[in-house]
Write a structure and sequence with these properties.
single chain, about 200 residues, alpha+beta, six-stranded mixed beta sheet, two-stranded antiparallel ribbon, about 25% helix, about 25% strand
Amino acid sequence: MNEIARQLRSGPKVLPTTQVCDGVPRLRWSLADFDRLIEADILTEEDRVELIQGELVPMASKGNRHELVRDEIQNWMMDHKPADVRLSSEIGWRPPDADTYVEPDILISPRRFKGANVPPQEVLLAIEVADSSLRYDTTTKARLYALLGVRDYWVVDAQSLLTRVHRQPAGSSYASVEQVPPSETLEPLLVAPLAIRLGELDLA
């Protein structure tokens, strides 16, 4: 932030911008800038923002249905995951060299990696449970995860439990996107023991 302030005071130097979300140029923030905003109490946990390739993006609020579905999936997977697998829930994930900080609802990785810093190519499964954030998770988040090279990305509709399974990242999109209804089994690409049928979860 100090560097940005110095650049603003020095006059005509143009700051880098990003056009990740809607094509409107914005100041580009580094992960170090983001951390300094937190250290200076400019951003707090109550602000609920993510850093998407250098752009600060407000996170959608999470309703009761979202929390219920995420919690049930998380608990089921905790009970069934192999011992050499780590499950991180709503962790602040910082993919290396990406100017990105996101909080996936569930992030599965090999246990030897710390969830916050797991390299994208080592992510076994990323899951977002979407209620009001469904469009964001299937567009902006999907593009981000594809660019990072996440090989298996699920977006679970919290209301219908229909899941969009994204695979084969190719540039800024996924070559394969399939919709799996809750009556069918979701079979993870890289961690088979976590195959789950969402229609069988107790969401009453």
